[in-house]
């Protein structure tokens, strides 16, 4: 059974979120503060964490940061108050995969959680046609120079070293590797990678920046995941002589 860790100090919110997740087939674990959440995460190894931003003791941002360090592949959905845009951006910066603003629809939250888990578990496309730059052999693997993405193992390596990517960063990199040379607007990426028809496009901007920090030699001057000003982003695969 898929397990979810719900972290919220408001018992009413915790009860509602837990009830909807249980109705959707999740095994739910509860924590009311950051210390308990981190301890419980180490014991139960949840498949997904629903994390309130405002917590007593250790705040939600620090909890998210520590979860990312100790459980890098576990998706985190952050609950934030409406209008706290800066906090939402900070949440994405420290590793949250998604956020839902309060007041929220519990049904929407469950759908967001399910979408993240589907994306994390999906094998993804087998990769783009062989054009001499990026490859997709063996099946389920995409490679571009020193960067290798293995969908079956859900692992990305660079120069043989495994990278610590969140589920959303993995999905975003998978999309770019599968569509080299194509320019994608932020709203297109939100539909393709996040499954959102509308939403805060700064979410894409933050994830692109985080991904660059992990895959680019010089994140401030990217050569792979490049910005096409006024349009969006493009993946420039390495030419054969540099691969």
Automatic annotation (TrEMBL):
Residue ranges of domain OmpR/PhoB-type in the record: 138-237
Looking at the record, which segments are called Disordered?
A: 121-140
Domain of life here?
Answer: Bacteria
Which GO terms of the molecular function aspect are on file? phosphorelay response regulator activity; transcription cis-regulatory region binding
Q: What residues does the Response regulatory domain cover?
A: 3-117
Q: Which InterPro entries match?
A: CheY-like_superfamily, OmpR/PhoB-type_DNA-bd, Sig_transdc_resp-reg_C-effctor, Sig_transdc_resp-reg_receiver, WalR-like, WH-like_DNA-bd_sf
A single GO cellular-component term on record: protein-DNA complex
Query: What keywords are assigned to this protein?
Result: DNA-binding, Phosphoprotein, Transcription, Transcription regulation, Two-component regulatory system
Positions carrying 4-aspartylphosphate = 52
Q: Where along the sequence lies the DNA-binding region?
A: 138-237
For whether the record's keyword set contains Transcription regulation, the answer is yes
Q: Does the keyword RNA-binding apply?
A: no
Q: Which SUPFAM superfamilies match?
A: C-terminal effector domain of the bipartite response regulators, CheY-like
A Gene Ontology BP annotation from the UniProt entry: regulation of DNA-templated transcription
For this protein, the record's CDD domains field holds:
REC_OmpR, trans_reg_C
Short name of any one Pfam family annotated for the protein? Response_reg
PANTHER family membership: DNA-BINDING DUAL TRANSCRIPTIONAL REGULATOR OMPR, REGULATOR OF RPOS
Name used for this protein in its record: DNA-binding response OmpR family regulator
Provide the species name. Answer: Humibacillus xanthopallidus
Q: What is the lineage of its organism?
A: Bacteria, Bacillati, Actinomycetota, Actinomycetes, Micrococcales
